[in-house]
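User: Please predict the structure of the protein below. I'd like the answer in structure-token form so I can feed it into my own downstream comparison script.

Assistant: Understood. Taking the following sequence of 374 residues as input:
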Amino acid sequence: MKRFTISLFTLFVALLLITACAQNQATPTTAPTEQTGAVTEQPAPTPVPAQQEQPAAEGSLLEVVKQRGKLICGANANLPGFGYLDQEGNYAGFDIDFCRALAAAIFDDPDAVEFRPLTAKERFTAVQTGEVDVLIRNTTWTLTRDASVGMDFGVVTFYDGQGIMVRKADNITKLEDLQGAAICVTTGTTTELNLADQMRARGIEYTPVVFETADNTFGAYEEGRCDAVTTDKSGLVSRKSLLKDPEAHVILDATLSKEPLGPAVLQGDPIWHDVVMWTVFATIQAEEFGITSENVDDFLNSEDPGIRRFLGLEGELGESLGLTNDFAYRVIKNVGNYGEIYDRNLGPGTPFELPRGLNDLWTRGGLLYSPPFR
């Protein structure tokens, strides 16, 4: 009887083992189905072939922009030379041209862009909420904006520094002459913070007169409600041209800060960030190659491998970004290289005549430098 019980127990265990083995053998037929579902949510790490443009943009704002058929660019509408409405009511300026360059890279059409005028206070919220695809509006790249505000900055398009403008009649020549002065400044900007830092470091007491928009800030200065006004030096040059008597005002030599200005996008979309960055780099590299909007077609017969890659005649650089391989050609043909953009809006023959200075190519003593198109 005892041996019979043991035999039954042994048979029971054997049946359990057989059942378990059957389940294990069935697992491969069910696992791929579950795994396939996971792949739908999180793409497998297999590299996407460079020639497949659509997958490269999947899940990116780039795909949204393409499907929409136009770019939405956050801009300034009140800063001559950088972002403003011309006499025909069209957006124009240095920053505006980089919006157009991005539209040209994506659509081969520099006019496939809708401009959203933004104040300094509104600009970051507009990016965070998706109201605009990119912000190209005289915005300074800082650590806080990069890390805490949720921006990813692209390439610096304009190296600037903060300055102060005063009336010539007041005989103010240096910061120390502003002891006890009232200084107009726009709130929500690095300008306001830099002014406080510099005056505190020098022990200069002053009264900040704060406004939410640049128009109000400079309007108050012209009305005599403050002794001086401060913003980036490029902005001072621009705004000075709008004063009733520009020659009655002077910009002090003192530079209060570093102000690297450039495009910004929402963090977390590396594909879109790359598209914005390499569009700007294309304008810089084109100037270094000597390629302009006027002669770009002549370079289509070039035997230089670097130029051929740049123009999309060889390789698949554009497709790796989710663009066409000739995206750089589109940018230069439709908008021009960096030097053309600068001269058209800020250089000789404009009301500003700003020297290139730091905003020249690295080969001419400036800071503009593009990574290789390789």
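That's the full token string. The first helix runs from residue 2 to 41.
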